[in-house]
Amino acid sequence: MKVTEAQVAKARDHYNGLVQRRGKQVVAMRQAGLTFAEIAGHFGVTRARIHQIYRQATLSGRLEPA
């Protein structure tokens, strides 16, 4: 089965949308007072991964830090 450029672009756009949405959720949860550990438990990932997502979302200039 051959994958077309259009399929790759669609998958990439979908993935980027998910990443941006998760970053927004993490920042909102931090602004609500949750710790990185609490947020990590919600998403089922490590505290360090949540910190990476938070930094990515805030350093990109898209969102304001908590």
Give your account of this protein's structure.
By secondary structure, the protein is mainly alpha-helical. The protein has one domain. Helices cover 73% and strands 0% of the residues. The chain contains 3 helices and no strands. It has helices at 5-31, 36-43, 47-59. Helix 1 crosses helix 3 (47-59). The mean pLDDT is 89.
Descriptive tags:
66 residues; mainly alpha
Brief digest:
With 66 residues, the protein is mostly helical. The protein is 73% helix and 0% strand.
CA distance, first residue to last residue: 46 Å
Largest sheet: none
Low-confidence stretches: none
The beta-strand count equals 0
What is the helical fraction, as a range of percent?
Answer: over 70%
SSE blueprint:
Elements: H1 5-31, H2 36-43, H3 47-59
Helix pairs in contact: 1-3, 2-3
